[in-house]
Amino acid sequence: MKITVIGAGAIGGNLAAKLSTAGHDVQVADARGPEAVRAEVLESGARAADLAEAVQGRDVIVLSIPFGVAGRLADLFASVPDETVVIDTSNYYPGMLSEPIEAVDDGQVESAYTAELLGRPVVKAWNAALAETQRAKGVPAGTPGRLAIPVAGDSEEARRVAMQLVDDTGFDPYDAGTLADSWRQQPNSPAYCTELTLEELPAALAAADRAKDAAIRDTLPERFAALGADPTVDDVVEMNRAAHR
């Protein structure tokens, strides 16, 4: 497929490299220009591109940008065909990685807010796994213990495309339903960054509690500080799991 990843940070860089390795035609665009794309992101064959050019003629566009800034791309996306699948990987951390957003604090689902800013539907995927998990723990389909990633969206076809790409990056895709249900994979739900298998993930999604999970999310700075210097990915996963015990 022809894929553009917008955002060359940890998540976007991982996805660009993995999707390119899987055989897709991948472009990477960054608001700071092509020169901002790190060389290691391009080692698997992805190409750096200007933002305006990178959204034209693509099958899929992956948004790996900070939560709440999608509105800056609305004019750019106005010319993107309706059939292009747009995937949102962002998460809302008010007061930490984002200014508080009243609509989301009042209950609007994160990716529904992103879709509203962007002016088009999106699929929610790859948001519920740590960057290091995505980089290092993807394995071929059928591998025992393969980790799963939830995918939510209103279009069955768009969900199907996103799920295939999740599989291509080394994880079992799980159909998590419509975008309205994607709050179940937001920070810090039982399914969020807890490294679950396809068998374990449905129960975790079902156990989500919007008020409780948001309260856990807001204690992240204190909980992360308690891990000490240089926590491992396993330390962070255990911290996330322990918050729901």
User: H/E element string?
Assistant: EHEEHEHEHHEHEHEHHHH
What is the share of helical residues? 25-40%
Please give the count of helices.
Answer: 11
- What's the N-to-C terminus distance? 41 Å
Strand content: 5-15%
The largest beta-sheet arranges its strands as 3-2-1-4-5-6
- Tertiary shape: globular
Unreliable runs: none
Query: What is the overall pLDDT average?
Result: 96
Compute the CA-based radius of gyration: 17 Å
- Strand count: 8
Could you describe the largest sheet, including whether it forms a barrel?
Answer: 6 strands, parallel
Secondary structural class: alpha/beta
What does this structure look like?
The N and C termini lie far apart (about 40 Å). About 35% of the residues lie in helices and about 15% in strands. The model has no long low-confidence stretch (mean pLDDT about 95). With about 240 residues, it is an alpha/beta fold.
Question: Which key terms come to mind for this protein?
Answer:
245 residues; alpha/beta; six-stranded parallel sheet; two-stranded parallel sheet; 8 strands; globular
Topology:
Elements lengths: L1 E5 L3 H12 L3 E5 L17 E3 L1 H4 L5 E4 L10 H4 L7 E4 L13 H4 L4 H9 L4 E2 L6 H6 L11 E4 L4 H13 L3 E4 L25 H6 L3 H9 L1 H6 L7 H10 L3
Parallel strand pairs: 1-2, 1-4, 2-3, 4-5, 5-6, 7-8
What does this entry show, briefly?
With 245 residues, the chain is an alpha/beta fold.
